[in-house]
Amino acid sequence: MAVTESAVVPVGAPGVFEGAREAVPGASEGARAAHEGILRRQSARESAARTYARALPIVPVRARGLTIEGADGRRYLDCLSGAGTLALGHNHPVVLEAIRKVLDSGAPLHVLDLATPVKDAFTTELFRTLPPGFADRARVQFCGPAGTDAVEAAFKLVRAATGRTGMLAFTGAYHGMTAGALEASGGATEVRVARLPYPQDFRCPFGVGGARGAELGARWTETVLDDSKSGVPRPAGMILEPVQGEGGVIPAPDAWMRRMREITAARDIPLIADEIQTGVGRTGTFWAVEHSGITPDVMVLSKAIGGSLPLAVVIYRDDLDVWQPGAHAGTFRGNQLAMAAGAATLAYVRENSLAERAQTLGARMLAQLRKLADEFPCVGDVRGRGLMIGVELVDPEAPPHPAAEGPRPAAPELAAAVQRECLRRGLIVELGGRQSSVVRLLPPLTISDEQTTAVLDRLADAVGAVAGGDLGRGGNEPRVGEPRRADGGRGEGELHGDGREPGRRRTP
Length: 508
Fold this sequence. Notes:
Elements lengths: L15 H4 L9 H17 L6 H4 L4 E5 L2 E4 L4 E4 L2 H4 L8 H13 L11 H13 L8 E5 L4 H16 L4 E4 L8 H5 L9 E4 L13 H17 L10 E4 L2 E2 L5 E2 L2 H13 L4 E4 L23 E4 L11 E5 L18 H16 L2 H22 L3 E7 L2 E6 L18 H13 L2 E2 L1 E3 L5 E4 L7 H19 L41
Parallel strand pairs: 3-15, 5-6, 5-7, 7-10, 10-11
Antiparallel strand pairs: 1-2, 2-3, 4-12, 8-9, 11-12, 13-14, 14-17, 16-17
Helix pairs in contact: 5-11, 6-11, 9-10, 12-14, 13-14
Cofactor: pyridoxal 5'-phosphate
Enzyme class: transferase
Family: Belongs to the class-III pyridoxal-phosphate-dependent aminotransferase family.
């Protein structure tokens, strides 16, 4: 039975498309023509800077939960989730109900930074979720609607509070696309930000990995800060991601996070935690800093806090609140619909223990995916935390790194091929990492066990096709995103009760 928009879906329940048992109608020639026309017009009209549209030539028209339906009638399992924005998946009933309630109430939709009942409810729910010891002394600044706006606001905040200007950031970081945020990201070319090594096991900058590699990184940080000839004056702040997302899904070790907290606290350097993608249960705790038990001085939040709508905030310790009125603003910082959707999302994640489910389900997915590395030499590493997962592709024919037992070179072309093969099988995934060699999974926290199996099966099939060089498709293979029939042909199809498509093998 289809789920109505006003119903509350139980945790892990399939959405309206996933739960349907009727056959999916085949796409008509008219639908295909409309689909292709929209894509052609987008290519002709939009800038060369567009990104997702290049790798994902689909035209979404309907969506619910994990599933997207395109204009051509094809359906996809969405493990991109708006780059992690959709904690509850597409069009979750509690989010739609919250939005509809504001619309029906006659409340103003645009109020700048004026107080409203909707804003008060959002702020109260947000503070309820903050790490212990942080909320009691916290202040919140509503800024522009994107995560990069929150990062810019945080930089301005710590510079005003400390009277210093420089910033510390880490290799591989991604904090946004505005000037200051981009300078702190790993791809910057003109830098006023001191860059520090971010710990990782697979490609450790010191060649040792593990706790030893993380400790060497911490000592490097101390040396840079304490050596009067390092060329790095005491900075206004340090910004870090508890899990680097765009950098390749690299979780920071908890012990290293605690060391960064100790190092910055001892030197009166505000620590900024970028929780834009890791927050709201994504990594297995409500906020990723909770894994290590640290309390940052500043947190920048966006993506999932708006319940799929644009919203960004900076949360910070009250003694940093030295701004004068108007020191930082933004016309759209009072988005009432986003605050209503965000409050509903935060409450649903908290009340239904979705962070804990993300931790359990993510561990299960990582265990299954690591078996791919045993089967396919092109899978170099599988890593992640909670439902933030990355699979790094390497060149299986290239010699390992000269360092003893070092990793093979990254293979971005293989990762791109896996992404294409996933799309052929109706699975949307993202790429990331230093060389775009990491296939990333960011499914909604409401993904069911059945859907998880389907995602893993399709990804395993895609990796197998790329590893075996079987990238061509015969006449009996489905087109992009098209479900296959039980007899293997094109057209009608549905998921079996165990989450597999007919004829599809299980993940090893």
